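User: Can you predict the 3D structure for this chain?
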Amino acid sequence: MHKKFIISLGLLLSSQVTQASVIEHYGYSRDSSSTVVSDGKLEWLSWNITKGMSIQSALAAFSADGWRLANSRQLTDLFGTFRFGLPKSSWDICETCSLISEIAWTPEEDSPADHFVSLFGFTELLRCANVTSTYCYSQNDPAAESWVMFGDDSNNDGWFRSASVIGDMTFVMSQNATNQYSGRAMFLADNVHKFKLTSKNSNVGVALVRDAPIVNPPSSIPTPGSLSILLAGIFIPLFRNRSERRVIP
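Assistant: Here is the predicted structure, written as structure tokens:
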């Protein structure tokens, strides 16, 4: 009887251990309950968190926590890591340069673009208005887009660049013709949308970064929940007392 109870208690204790779900791709990770993406050196705020904000308003809201606008070099390094079907060196810090990469379709939904959107979140879901619409993204396979403003305005024209990543999608050319892609990534020159510090777009976020904190390696021993500790504190002394009473003098 006691043995069964001890086993049941052990199962209850183990069930109280919280195991975090971590999304991890290309050296970047995000806890499923968090809005921060990190490579261990630099943290990125999920792009959907600043959706609809201007650069100015995003910094006003988050700079107190150490967030700052991501510069061209940081975006270039980020896109260079995921590559999106291009050599790493293709992604350039040039303020007036644009680059678009379409990733050829494969049946598996595991392209770099899909992984990127799962980490950073999407700012807009693009789909056809109805089943008869054309020149739009299929209702059955819409496009989840992550789109942000970034840069350092190194050419002092007052405009900032934007970057976009779209996961796998089906583009409807006509009722009888569709094109499928495993993703698309874009760097757009600062003079394409001419985003300023105060510019807002309901489907565009702001790329914010901050230095990752220096932390000690996580303990390999899981920490039991508060209920487990409480139950252990109640029942373990009871078993000890009953065992001591059974000792024959």
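The longest strand covers residues 177-188. DSSP finds six helices and 14 strands in the chain.
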